[in-house]
């Protein structure tokens, strides 16, 4: 437990003490294990590796009360901010707090508790839990699993719920934010509130996709389903974007009750034997070979892959699984001869990117800078995006996956804070760059510039698009991102739940104020 810290911090009307005093006061009251100024390494950097910002201190809360005390303590200073840090997998310093307090949410006491409401299963987990731990515990202890995932699971529950949380299941169940029924949140006022669609709904919807601006998620209740045992994982290759995208859209539009895959994603790769960007990345098994003889002569500089998975259980008849897969694949127009498939355990499938992480660590590209760009692009603009961006600007690849797959807008709840394009179908586009650090690879600045060029093109062509994991420098850019109506709502929510702009300063949306934030600021 962290002891109470408030009376050691200067009140609103007092001059702030020098930092050293503030920290030593905090250390005395919070306890030396809970607060540190020596080991600021993890709090000063993130996965992006583009920003380094020194906080005043790193705090390790164990309970919700600890979190609330730290936020209230910060509120008694005129300047202190608080950043909840999940697993620090942000790209642009979003979980950092320059000269503020960083809360290491992973130190919160572990909670994975099954709850049944009217017979339906849910799991209560702490905001700092890693999704991979939630998966393993739910499958091994209850035979159940959440329905909506991210591709990579060493991310925290609070970290992904602050954005959306998207993977190949989102076409059916919506993002992770659509699969949560209750949250416990510490607001920027230091109040602990349990909220849901019916209890404090304004806070509930604000926090989901809220970029950490309205409260710190200390507990989330997540919808569960029966966990399948096995997954058939399939990749099929296309040379024409129109065929790739219309097949992907046909799959994600399948009605409930119609047979469909349980996971639908897609990606772009370079039409060459380049080991980082091209054909060698397609096979799912070392025994499989990508034979370019199948590629039609009309193919361009890039090819497209639909990545699919079907869940099944040990008790399912193998011929039924084959029949469903063959029936669906039979309707698709991929290049015959460029199909890859493997069967593997469900948990192993969901942890697939963990294996890539191990390789990337060995190759030194995990710890190199990652100037990633993530966008949502409307269906109406995705074809032009393909011809201008994939086929031209990115024709040599990004040294990592270029994801592109469709999502259905009606699975996203517009009451949440996340904003997406207007159209009924939009695509997630993710440039997951894994270039080696200079001098072996390009300078990160060059890649950031390429990202800027892509954004400029989207703006110049008036594409209906939004940044996912938005990162802006000016107030006007944030207003443009949200649009006037959603921006007003965002500011109203900030005023209600974090009026002094204490929380998530690394998002660079609001500046800390000594007095409650007002709508005119
Ligand atoms: P952090 O980076 O630590 O924090 C992100 C933001 O959330 C910060 O503003 C922070 O203050 C705030 N925050 C953190 N915890 C809390 C909390 N408990 N309450 C309130 N606010 C909080 N995203 C997808 O949607 N789909 C993917 O498939 C996907 N794959 C990824 C793969 C890799 C290898 C990486 C590095 C990232 C991926 N992401 C994906 C992006 C990921 O969802 C975001 O970067 C997410 O923010 C990371 O979670 P984190 O726990 O590290 O959060």
What does this structure look like?
This protein has 15 helices and 18 strands. With 521 residues, it is an alpha+beta fold. A hairpin with a 4-residue loop joins strand 8 and strand 9. Helix 12 packs antiparallel against helix 13 and helix 14 packs across helix 15. It binds flavin-adenine dinucleotide (FAD). Flavin-adenine dinucleotide binds next to strand 3, helix 5 and strand 10.
Structure summary:
This protein has 521 residues and is an alpha+beta fold. Helix content is 29%, strand content 21%. Flavin-adenine dinucleotide binds next to strand 3, helix 5 and strand 10.
Strand line-up of the largest beta sheet: 14-11-13-12-16-17-15-18
Number of continuous helical runs: 15
> Percent range for helical residues?
25-40%
* Shape summary: globular
User: Which class of secondary structure composition applies to the elements?
Assistant: alpha+beta
Global Rg = 23 Å
Oligomer: single chain
Bound molecules: flavin-adenine dinucleotide
Question: What is the number of beta strands?
Answer: 18
Span between termini: 37 Å
Mean pLDDT: 93
Poorly predicted runs:
1-16
* Biggest sheet record: 8 strands, antiparallel
How much of the polypeptide forms β-strand, as a percent range? 15-25%
Task: Give the topology, please.
Layout: H1 19-30, E1 35-36, H2 41-44, E2 57-59, H3 64-75, E3 82-85, E4 101-104, E5 112-117, E6 120-126, H4 131-142, E7 144-146, H5 157-161, H6 170-173, E8 180-187, E9 192-196, H7 201-207, E10 215-226, E11 230-238, H8 241-252, E12 263-270, E13 302-312, H9 318-329, E14 339-345, H10 346-350, H11 352-363, E15 373-378, H12 379-393, E16 402-408, E17 425-431, H13 444-460, E18 465-467, H14 475-482, H15 484-497
Parallel strand pairs: 2-4, 3-4
Antiparallel strand pairs: 1-2, 5-6, 6-10, 7-10, 8-9, 8-10, 11-13, 11-14, 12-13, 12-16, 15-17, 15-18, 16-17
The structure holds flavin-adenine dinucleotide.
The site of flavin-adenine dinucleotide has 35 residues, from β3, α5 and β10.
